[in-house]
């Protein structure tokens, strides 16, 4: 394992250590909200959707880097351990995107069931 592989694995582990508690907190927030906290749920839904796009974008970039290393006409000199580390990062990032998506779907389903106040116009 070279220095770049170790650095990328460190980034992956730090991302995991930071994201798991944040995802867990979002899950707890989604579980314990009631009808009075609609604005908070809408903000949580928007935040979850942004995180899904961030994780998916990072995973896409990692896969693109692996593809570029394999299909480049020039020898880029990227070792197999670096490709394996990038693949691990992409997998973890996609896993987080799925978790964030599950939370967003739960919040969206709850928001769809919340009754809406209807106002009638007086003539």
- Overall mean pLDDT score? 88
Low-confidence stretches: none
Order of helices and strands: HHH
For the termini, the CA-CA separation is 77 Å
Number of strands: 0
Overall outline: elongated
Number of helices: 3
The helicity comes to over 70%
Structural class: mainly alpha
Rg from alpha-carbon coordinates? 20 Å
Q: What is the makeup of the main sheet?
A: none
% residues in beta strands: under 5%
Structure overview:
The protein is mainly alpha-helical and 123 residues long. Helices cover 79% and strands 0% of the residues. The chain is built from three helices and no strands. The chain has helices at 3-31, 38-71, 80-113. Helix 1 (3-31) runs parallel beside helix 3 (80-113) and helix 2 (38-71) packs antiparallel against helix 3. The longest helix is centred in the middle third of the chain and has 34 residues, at 38-71. It is elongated and about 75 Å long. The termini are far apart. The model has no long low-confidence stretch (mean pLDDT 88).
Task: Give the gist of this structure.
The chain is mainly α and 123 residues long.
Tags for this model:
123 residues, mainly alpha
Layout of helices and strands:
Blueprint: H1 3-31, H2 38-71, H3 80-113
């Amino acid at each position: 394992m070279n220095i770049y592989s170790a650095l990328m694995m460190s980034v992956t582990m730090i991302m995991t250590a930071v994201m798991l508690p944040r995802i867990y907190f979002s899950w707890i927030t989604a579980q314990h909200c009631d009808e009075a906290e609609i604005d908070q749920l809408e903000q949580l839904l928007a935040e979850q959707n942004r995180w899904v796009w961030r994780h998916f974008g990072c995973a896409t970039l990692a896969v693109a880097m692996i593809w570029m290393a394999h299909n480049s006409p020039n020898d880029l000199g990227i070792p197999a351990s670096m490709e394996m580390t990038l693949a691990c990062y992409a997998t973890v990032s996609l896993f987080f995107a799925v978790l964030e998506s599950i939370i967003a779907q739960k919040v969206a389903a709850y928001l769809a069931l919340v009754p809406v106040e209807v106002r009638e116009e007086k003539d």
